[in-house]
Amino acid sequence: MEVRKIVLIVCDGMSDRVVSSLEEKTPLEYAKTPNLDKLAMIGCTGVLDILSPGIPPGSDSAHLALFGYNPEKDYPGRGAIEALGANIHVNEGSLACRFNLSTVVEKNISEGVTLIVKDRRAGRISSEEAGKLIEYLQMKLDSFSGVKVKIIPNVEHRGILVLEGGELNGDVTDSDPHEVDSCVNKCEPLTNASIPKAAEHTAKIINEIVKSSYTLLKEHEINKSRVERGLPAANIILPRGAGVVKKVEPFIKVWGLKPACIAKLALYRGVARYVGMDVYDVPEATGTVNTNVEAKFKKAVELLKEYDFVFIHIKGTDSASHDRKPLEKVNMIEKIDSAFKIIMDKVVTPGKAVVAVTSDHSTSSELGIHIGDPPALVIYAPDIIADDVKQFNERAVLKGGLGRVKGVDLMKILLNYACRAMEYGLKPSRESRVYRSTECSPLVI
Ligand code: ZN
Ligand code: ZN
């Protein structure tokens, strides 16, 4: 039996709610999308409960679910994912957090002096200045209570904090309050931490590092010069998203598919690397609304020769939503649709692959946040039974044949339409009881 390849296109945060300035339509309804509508016409549609009904997912846990992993069990924390995305090697068992170089001021409170966040990005400090400050911190802070500390710069104000050694746990609160004019959070173990003692130990170390970073950075020459130039001082590091790095079963072993990812931004590249995908970029992609979607789709067509599964991530739809620009989102959707003609011509029409288009979550372009509404989904396979849905948007797909699908089940559905799913109960392969293996182990007589 001929098996098919799979293309999964995730338009980040594309699904939305009705927007008053768009005649009470969603951006996807308002946009002119002849190519995606064609796919809906010849494919089958539905909605995806990415994590659970009503739960707004983060992009990283959402992608894990879309790749068929259980985020409850397999999610290593945002810090670990970002480190992987930035190509920073972190050993299994180490703890990784993201951090921002931020600007704080002191404030007297009844318990003593606290720190108030004035700019979470320290005026979007340049990578060059941030790099020097972080290098200085690393020199001064290389270990705490027997735990090795690594402070690694990323782009501009961003960095990764890695702790190695001893028992560490990621179930701790963020030092970053995520709001300006709020005080720097004391890092504390979560009440339901999986290893409470390790979480307490981890929180203590993080608090020491945060306090020391302030003491060291506030007097630094670069900050003195920044203040003289009228710029905010980058006088503290604020960690968030702690997680202990672990290993998961690689995608190829779970699904029997050789996977490739095309994504620009570190977070998505990180999730893809975490599950063992080969990660590609196209120079024309920017990770913003100005990206070149055509270049991404062309690359996908090329990669399909070598890979069984190609995942393409497009960010602009989510960015426009966070910026509360529904019309910019409409334009981005129309740009995706016009580029999608490449997939229609080169993948759908030849009828050799399964193609799915969806979002990792819905993002409201009026509220500017992720929402728990299930995103629209369309799947095409050459022999799929098309439903009566003729347009690809949140309202139309409510009548779709796939109904309401759980995010973690999407891969199984795609595997089935790719004629790769193994009949339940059969066990011809030692590797998997999920997919049909093409390799056989010959009995020698
Ligand atoms: Zn997202
Ligand atoms: Zn988002």
Structure description:
With 445 residues, this protein is an alpha/beta fold. It is globular, with a radius of gyration of 24 Å. β5 (143-144) and β6 (147-153) form a beta hairpin. The longest helix is centred in the middle third of the chain and has 23 residues, at 196-218. The chain has an eight-stranded mixed sheet, with helices on both faces. Strands 3, 4, 5, 6, 7 and 8 form a six-stranded antiparallel sheet that branches. α3 (59-66) runs parallel beside α10, α5 (78-85) crosses α10 (266-274) and α11 runs parallel beside α14 (341-348). Helix content is 31%, strand content 21%. The site of one zinc ion has 6 residues, from α12.
Characteristics:
445 residues; alpha/beta; Alkaline Phosphatase, subunit A; 2 domains; eight-stranded mixed sheet; 15 helices; 31% helix; 21% strand; globular; binds zinc ion
Shape, per Cα inertia axes: globular
Beta-strand percentage?
A: 15-25%
Mean pLDDT: 94
Number of helices: 15
Number of strands: 16
Helix fraction by DSSP (H/I, runs of at least 4): 25-40%
The main sheet orders its strands as 10-9-11-1-12-15-2-16
Give the second-level CATH assignment, the architecture of the largest domain. Answer: 3-Layer(aba) Sandwich
In CATH, the homologous superfamily of the largest domain goes by the name Alkaline Phosphatase, subunit A
Q: What would you report as the Rg, rounded to the nearest angstrom?
A: 24 Å
Q: Which cofactor or ligand species appear?
A: zinc ion
Distance between the termini: 27 Å
- Spans of 5+ residues with little confidence (pLDDT < 50)? none
> Mind describing the biggest β-sheet?
8 strands, mixed
Report the CATH topology name of the largest domain.
Alkaline Phosphatase, subunit A
Query: What is the highest CATH level, the class of the largest domain?
Result: Alpha Beta
Provide the domain count: 2
